[in-house]
């Protein structure tokens, strides 16, 4: 499911017009059902999109909690509720857990793969990664990115969109938390810089 910038925004607008009600931290409405098809044989082709659930985290409103075992991201709302999103997480040996905060946000972010990743990808797969890739539909960071810091230190981990939606629900990333582009746009619109993030 390859999306252009216009395609992502068009689908997001259609979902809003078609009944996907906006959910703010003080107001909760049910989302219209969305069905994603990531290809035949994919166990997550039945993913129905984000939904409002009873908050399973116990964290304060505005916080983000990523449950790597369940491959779910929760944005905590008011009144004991949360928005639950499906995510992709780090593969074996690349997972990260801990507490951080959103230090900055970016629309269609540029990608700067770490030097270690560039060396690893070349050695293991023979694939040459660029030192920098401009934002856009082919960029691995997708439509939006939330940058996670601990204090003033960049963890190098992100919550971001993806141009590989079939990885949602799987442990396939190099540690970052991946989301469907439409849903990372939704999360981005609700999360403030400084928001607490916990990956468990």
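Q: What amino acid sequence fits the structure above?
A:
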């Amino acid at each position: 499911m390859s999306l252009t910038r216009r395609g992502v925004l068009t689908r997001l607008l259609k979902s809003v017009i078609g009944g996907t009600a906006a959910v703010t931290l003080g107001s909760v409405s049910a989302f219209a059902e969305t069905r994603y098809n990531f290809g035949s044989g994919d166990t997550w082709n039945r993913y129905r999109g984000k939904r409002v659930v009873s908050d399973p985290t116990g964290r304060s409103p505005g916080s983000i909690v990523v449950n790597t075992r369940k491959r779910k991201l929760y944005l905590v709302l008011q009144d004991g509720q949360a928005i639950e999103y499906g995510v992709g997480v780090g593969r074996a040996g690349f997972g990260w857990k801990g507490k951080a905060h959103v230090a900055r946000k970016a629309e269609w972010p540029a990608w700067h793969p770490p030097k270690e990743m560039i060396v690893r990808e070349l050695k293991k797969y023979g694939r040459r990664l660029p030192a920098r890739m401009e934002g856009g539909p082919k960029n691995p960071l997708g439509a939006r990115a939330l940058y996670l810091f601990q204090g003033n230190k960049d963890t190098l981990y992100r919550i971001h969109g993806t141009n590989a939606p079939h990885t949602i629900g799987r442990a396939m990333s190099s540690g970052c938390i991946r989301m469907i582009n439409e849903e990372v746009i939704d999360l981005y619109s609700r999360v403030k810089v400084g928001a607490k993030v916990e990956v468990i």
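Q: And what stands out in the fold?
A: The domain at 5-199 is CATH 2.40.440.10 (L,D-transpeptidase catalytic domain-like).
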